[in-house]
Amino acid sequence: MSTNNQPARINDSAYYPSKEALSQFISKFQSPVTRRAIRPGFIARTDGFDVDETVDMLEKHPGQEALLSRLLSVSDLSEKTYKRFAENPNSLYNWLPAVIKAIRKSGSSLKIPNTKTLRLPIELAQFIRLEYADTSDHDKELFNKFIFDQFKLEDDKTYFIKTGNFSSKFQFANAKCSEPREMGEYFQVINNFAMAVGAAHSVDLVVREYIEDVESNPTIYNGMPLRTEFRVFVDFDKGNIIGTVPYWHPIVMKRALKHGLTDSIQQDYQTYLQHEDKLMQEYNEYLNQVQKEIRNILSHIELAGQYSIDVMKNGTDLYVIDLALMSESALTELL
User: How many other CB atoms are found less than 10 A from the CB of residue 314?
Assistant: First the structure.
């Protein structure tokens, strides 16, 4: 675990297998859907669209951002789409090194969970876009082993996992992985869900240490500890804080949960109501400290534009857990 003034390490190099190694790996795939969609050096179109042409058309028409996001999420990868996802500023792979460097330079007490990242080659990035149910047990096991080996995972250890820009925290049983030798399947399920909600815009995978809850908070969303979190909106160009809001804001949470149709969502709603006072009390208690720590790193961070920064409280520790472009972040309406 990272300690004060000693942020977590992140691996500096992406995984790019040689063409020969990749060819050997892919040749072992057996299920028809996999062999049809992925061959060495070739991605077959399974959706029938020329995604690059359609993307170019949508980008020329303002107001089509939601449709464009959905299209990119569900389409097979092309080289152009792969490059677009690799350059996604919301991907943890792209922003985390700058945040770690800024924390070190500033001497901030902010922490970051120990983190490993992996940028998949296009063929394997395409594999996690295939429907989980359509891929064979053999191919899943092959990908499981690849993930276990590449991330150098340990048996009997719990991890928090996500794609570069999507954590699936609202289905927390998928984000918290206590079965490292099946992690490849977890990633496929997470990315399949990201595709369904228009958020599959990454070719990066992330494995972090799981931060155990030291406060015995209740859980919602299938096992997620309901910890106090802050969303800080910042302008890196001007070096200032635009505003801060509670991540679990009462208005948003009650609106999202109150009319949930399932028993589990209704239980989450009751859990939130019982925990709301503690969340808001801790938010107000730690707000000045969070803003002070964020200000400390602003002059040292090598990022441009307006972003949201998510900070999670665990005991007295404050963890930076996510960044995203402000223009693509929720909760801006609360500023």
Answer: 19
| Residue in this structure with the two tokens 């149709």, named with its chain if needed | 261
Give how far Cα 286 sits from Cα of 108, 227, 232, 280, 316, Å. Answer: 15, 13, 13, 10, 9
If asked whether residues 182 and 241 sit together in one domain, one would say no
Contacts of 24 (CB under 8 A, 6+ apart): none
**What single-letter DSSP state applies at residue 89?**
T
Each residue's pLDDT tens digit, 232-290: 999 999 999 999 999 999 999 999 998 887 899 999 999 999 999 999 999 999 999 99
Is the domain of 101 the same as that of 138? yes
pLDDT per position as a tens digit, 160-177: 999 999 998 889 999 999
Amino acid in the structure at residue 76: D
Residue 315's domain comprises: 219-334
Measure Cα distances from 334 to 83, 231, 251, 322 in Å: 34, 11, 9, 19
Do residues 82 and 189 both lie within one domain? yes
The answer to whether the beta carbons of residues 153 and 197 sit under 8 Å apart is: no
Look up the pTM and report it. 0.89
Mean per-residue pLDDT for 85-91? 97
Give the CA distances from residue 59 to residues 116, 142, 179, 202, 229, in Å, rounded to whole numbers and listed in that order: 33, 38, 41, 19, 35
